[in-house]
Batch of 3 targets.
Target 1
Amino acid sequence: MFKKQSVFVAAIATAALMVACAGQKAPADAAIKAAETALAAVRDDAAKYVPAELQGVETSLTALKDNFAKGDFKAVLAGSGPLTAQIGSLKDAAMAKKAEMEAGMAKASGDWTAMAADLPKMVEAIQSRVDILGKAKKLPKGMDAAAFDGAKSGLDMMKSTWTEATAAAASGNFMDAVAKAQMVKDKGTEVMTALGMGG
Amino acid sequence: MASDDKTKAAAENPYTQTYVVKKGDSLSKIAEEVYGDKMLYPKIFEANRDILTDPNKIKPGQKLRIP
């Protein structure tokens, strides 16, 4: 009698568990779909601006799906809240990084405009001096042939780097363009000093 | 480049060296100092045609462009 009662109770418990599990399946499925939709909305920006953080969220989503596949809907529902928060943080991080990059690019664009107007004049002034010194019968006091050759090499480097800078700007990469333009300016300052053009 | 163009280019270029004429200076003396060759003085004259009419007439205090 007791044994029959135990079997009956166990059957009831199993049935109740099955009903409970079945009842959790739909919310678990909906939670995963909601997470996928939310992640899809930020995936492109996240991949571009915060790829490492995106990888973490993808891993969490995969774990949730694995739990769903195993029928552990309770774990899915328990994990969906933190995942939603994780996706929210991912979106915030991606937007912040995007804004930072856009601000940096806008500044670089402005810097480039100024450098693009200024540095060709520096190259031109140095070229003029190198051309004139190339015609001199002897070099000015304090400048030897090695220094003059170094200045000519420096000018060649400035011209080739400037070509790279303008190509970077033409392709919209103003940060790279400004970095290269700064190299041109630094080298130009060095060459002008070597040529005695500081005064 | 024509003389006028050279003068204009030097005048508009902030990187062109400048030289303030001192007592006793001449263009050839300045050319020897900055170029090492006094015979290159016409380069300085050409770059300063807007303020110089004669390469032999420069005045102390004049600010010359040295291309």
Target 2
Amino acid sequence: MIDKLRQQYIKDKIQLIEISKDGVILDSDNNLFKLTKGKTIFDVHPFFESIQYHFHEKSGSEFTISCINLEIGNVTGIFDLTIHVQKDSVIFSIVDFTAHYKISNTLSQEKNESLIQSQILKEREEFKNKFLANTSHELRTPLSSIMGFSTILQRSNLNETQLHYLDIIKQSGEHLRNLIDDILDISKIEMGRLKIQYNRFDFFKVLDLLEDTYTLKTKTKNIEFLTKIDKNIPKYLVGDKIRLTQILTNLLDNAVKFTDNGSVNLIIRLLERKSKFLKIEFEIQDTGIGIQEDKIESIFESFTQTHDANIYGGTGLGLSIVKSLINLMNGSFTVKSKEEEGTTFKFILGFEFSGNQKEDTPLELNLKANTEGNKFNVLIADDLESNQLLLMKILADYGDYYVDIVSNGDQVIERLHQNPYDLILMDLKMPKMDGYETTRFIRQSEIEELRNIPIIALTANVSPLEKEVCLGIGMNDYIAKPFNEKELIKKMNILLNKKTN
Amino acid sequence: MSSPKKIVLLGHFGVGKTSLMKRFIDDTFSEDYKVTLGVQIQKKVVELKSTKKISLIIWDVEGNTSVKNTRLSYLLGSNGFIYVFDATRIDTFIDINEEIEFLNENYPKAKIKVIGNKLDLVSKQSLIDILALKEIKFDCLTSAKTGENVKEMFQDLAQDLQS
């Protein structure tokens, strides 16, 4: 019986072959492959040719090579081979493991395919992210000049018509900046990189700003803007002020855009208060053109526009961002709409009551540097002439600064060794030595005054990590382009006044 | 003809090692990805510039994220290595310098070629820029699909092995 089983299970799985040191087949049991004595093993398969170096190892040595795919005659399979080196010959024991290896083949195939697929998807996402960041940078740079010079031009001696045209240019610039921000936001949301920041903020201040903005916007369209805010809502809450403003702005912008008669209403109610947790409902009603019932579902999809984009403009990203932000803040929302009658968006968000309800002392906008009669020396490092001119013009108009301009990091280092500076405005993307490298160099300087010089990064790169990177390498502050000149001056003066004190 | 040379194709799975071998040996290509289990061995005689001939025995081994995980028995006795990476997947070339260092240290006599495959799927210049940025040295960019540079790359290695 044992012989029978051996015959059935082992004999057909193992072949023993003896060859001479120069590869001539001396003996073979031919259990797997039919080999002819006297012929060379090298003609059987090139595999044997490539293992010749083992034949001359010390007698008694054994070497195993596993999982070899071989096709010999009409036999194909996956084998393990052990080489037994003898004094005058070499013996191969070949074991057929085809069935065993085939099982793991399926598993490996599935595992590898899924890994390759996920790597490719990751690459695509990263490419898209880099592309968007780069495009955003390239768009922001000229936009910074358009917005900055428009502000400067507004202060010059212009007539009413010219001021009106300039206002249109500025508004268009703002609009363009919002569109770029939307595209970046949707990309961050899709990649899961948008994080909600929970901080204490003045809820009513947010609403006051919105009220001012939309009273003005609705006035130009001859429609009404009405607000009804529940007075039981505490003044100071903990939540993400920026993202709440973004949601409300997006919804109010849409309401105003699609309403030509009647009104836009913002109603805010305190729904629930349990311990320090609050639930607030925001309702935005309009009497505009409304949405067809069968299209309501699709309005929250990216790049979807229900109404003619040629008439109403936009990227179709606003509501998709709104929906994602509400979800990220664990909120809920509903939409009701009737064609030709209007639309009502409602969303509910949770906030925390801030233990500190003490009125904030308004920070004085410090637009005056504490020069004590002396002007500050500021070094501008930017390779773009338009940016250089813009910064120079702004600083000259404020009058508290002497300004020097350089175009790259090498020149920054050179100038720092020639003149003492109180502050550097540093572009990040510059030829030769960029802003990052220059900052690192300055922060490692042996001269204490250089090491401590305040540096503000000015960059069109607004990726979420950028600010962290800038502060991490030792910059004191960060301003994204296109920037608000008052914000620039304020940030500069905080650092300069700190330095003086 | 001199003694045959053992060449081992190395690299992550799915980078196109088998496709490169098939393109070189049979001048064929298939879009389907089939995992290689263990090793497949094929032979081709290559004519050198000097009209001398050389036999290349190519070991197409299963993909691995690191050479260190490859079965030692596959690597022993090699005259040359072709380290293949996938130009579309950064994970397949990000650690390449360490991989090559390992091969150089352990197989100092073997000739090594670093190959970026799937060139048909990427912009050549962008790829070169990325590789420069990551300080990755490579010898050749190929496409097993179109055949671009495949024959030349093997020919080049054969020439190196002869000299």
Target 3
Amino acid sequence: MTETAPATPRGIDPRAPRFAAWITSVLLLVATFLGLIGIGGSRFDPAFVLTVVIALLFLWSVLSPTTSPWSVLFRRVVRPRLAPPTDLEDPRPPRFAQGVGLFVVGGGLLLHVLGVPLALPIATAMAFVAAFLNAAFGFCLGCELYLLLQRAGVLGRGPRAA
Amino acid sequence: MSPIPALLVLAALVVIAAVAGVVWRARDGRRRRGSDVVDLTDLGVTPGRVTLVQFGTETCARCPQVRRMLQGIASALPTVDHVDVDLTHRADLARAHRVLGTPTTFLIGSDAVLVARFNGVPRRADVEAALSELPLLQEAS
């Protein structure tokens, strides 16, 4: 086993993912509200449109974390008003968590389009809880899922060839 | 659903998330006692040494802060080692040591007995208290 951590990518300000998580929480809460009041209505209602936007934002953060809107907003507007970060954080965990968010919200959208009732508000509510825990408590639920997914055999199977 | 019940559902959702966060924060990093002998295979532990074994993955957001703290503790104590075990590609090790989340830290005595187990971010004082119970360190100090 390695005694030192493998080469890690350049660190990010740990407040950036927390800031993005607050915005994501609010968007998901609004989407859940729209989803609840839109039950039984048109399938392509405002809740659907907003959730598609949220899913695209998750996708953006997975593909290119540094150019995603909330990351740019943080760097341009928020960070100059804060003290410099005391230490930097590995960018991979929040990126993985954005992928988990995309999976949950994407699954909700798919089931919604297929006509499953309540799929959309349930998916956005689950994603809201995860984003809120990250924003308010610094607890990255998506990051914690890695080991459970690994145990289920979805990720990181078997020892890496030494 | 009309707007008022929908808002009530949202309020319940926020309360549930907040309670979950408070409960999680209270439980996180608490010391659990152990008495099992740990299988040291593939952990990188030098037999006969007191070792803080930290399990992490590439997606573990809070592992770097724990690594810095444990390295600080270990570097101040000549008889204590710090070892970082990356579980990203080692589901077998995660299963063998029943690691369900990261960071998880084991304090392993020189006789390979698990003295303490911390799930989450341990408090520095708790780690130091667990270390001070080890006979080897009491002799050294």
